[in-house]
Amino acid sequence: xxxxxxxxxxxxxxxxxxxxxxxxxxxxxxxxxxxxxxxxxxxxxxxxxxxxxxxxxxxxxxxxxxxxxxxxxxxxxxxxxxxxxxxxxxxxxxxxxxxxxxxxxxxxxxxxxxxxxxxxxxxxxxxxxxxxxxxxxxxxxxxxxxxxxxxxxxxxxxxxxxxxxxxxxxxxxxxxxxxxxxxxxxxxxxxxxxxxxxxxxx
Length: 202
Prior knowledge:
Layout lengths: L3 H35 L9 E4 L4 E2 L2 E2 L1 H15 L5 E5 L10 H11 L7 E4 L5 H15 L3 E6 L4 H10 L3 E6 L8 H21 L2
Parallel strand pairs: 1-4, 1-6, 4-5, 6-7
Antiparallel strand pairs: 2-3
């Protein structure tokens, strides 16, 4: 007969292994959902396109931001929306916001400035969408196509829905991971970020 200490140790190990297995199942399942959403373009007519911010370099959009803006221009010209919302605040040591750089880029590509809405607040997806939500109420905008990188879509849409924003996904294929390893890393990172938001409100 085993001693109480050994029985407790065995139960503890079994409990730990069960917890690790459950965590692995949740993580893998979330990663699968992230991947599936990344492949899904939910294109339909809406009130506005929302370009989520990304880095700007000395007043020029980074390649990631430029790809998002290029996709938004394409969708605009196809008639999916009559207005474009550009977003993103000012990063550390930056003199311009991501939204202002995106605004200028759209004008340079012949988008009517009266149809562009700049939301230059927000340092992450959550704070950006909160600022966008407030601006949507002021502008009487009810629905969005969210233009962002494919792995980011699930988390962005979840946050938007939680804030009462009717939104659909417009993945920027040009910003898709280019290798299997890059895809695994991006999906894993977004799965962790999604779980942190859902489970920990972070």
